[in-house]
Amino acid sequence: MLKKLIVASMGTAIAIASQTAFSHTRLQVPVIEGSATLGHAGKVNYNNVVVAHGCHDPVSGNSSAPVIANSTVFPTSTADDEAMQPTITYSDGTPAPGNVDDYLEGWIGANRLVVSSDVWKYGEEKFDALGNRVGFYVKQGSLPTSGSGTLRGLVPFVTTAVRIPDASCAKSVTLVVAIADICKMTPISGFNDETVQLWTPAVGSNFDGVGGHGYNSPATLTITRAATAPLDPSCGAGSDIKITPSAAQLNRDLPIVAKGKQVWPRP
To answer: FRET partner for 25 with CA separation of 20 to 30 A, picked from 62, 91, 156, 174?
Structure first.
């Protein structure tokens, strides 16, 4: 359970505009520089999931229904399950060869929840069967309203040291992040703009949110090559790589399971 610990007030609901205008739920810092080294000596990046607004309120007609929970998942893979493997493409959508390890080092479990109970009282990290962090959730809260909409809320997390391998010709690697802003705890059959805002890739999962406000509009986290690790001249201009989670992974990891019981979507 989250304790009463505030880290640099990062989880506070915010009403003022930030340097970046958020109209959808996004990461506060969507582009970070990769670390030159891995481990404790490597570079870490503190960040926030920025919940920009609530769900649709049919009475007011605004996006002012308070967000009571959030679930965030980053692409990962399970070595012995092909269905869990993410899709790896170039920036133009064509398939890229190899696996994630060819493009990123230290990426498994790199995104970790930072403790805060400013808006949502309870939160935990999510793990796969191998014990790898795959994301996190927060719940038992309510993003307050202000005028015609909700205040913005922050879910703080940290990305530990990740780097683009020297041998790779990638100049950047973009992780597609799946996020759900939950306003009512419903089963999947109850998903609509009044109950949940789904900022997820449309990959055929239970959480595509077809027809919803955020359809196929996921957040992203881009890791750029460390300035101290330039591209090999044989790479030319280099490539931009995109890694998208599979439908199987989202079906497994986006639900909120607390104390062994799935609380969202309701069974």
So the answer is: 91
Between the alpha carbon of residue 62 and those of residues 149, 153, 218, the distances in Å are 6, 17, 21
Q: Is the peptide bond before 218 cis (omega within 30 degrees of 0)?
A: no
According to the model, what pLDDT value does residue 233 have? 95
Domains of the chain by start residue, with CATH:
26-31+42-85+102-162+177-220+246-253 (2.60.40)
Q: Is 6 a residue whose pLDDT tops 70? A: no
Say how far apart CA 34 and CA 160 lie, in whole Å.
Answer: 10
Residue 203 neighbours by CB under 8 Å, 6+ apart: 87, 244, 245, 246, 247, 250
Secondary structure of 229-265 in the HEC alphabet? CCCCHHHCCCEEEEEECCHHHHHHHCCEEECCEEEEC
Task: Report the predicted TM-score, pTM, of the whole model to 2 decimal places.
Answer: 0.91
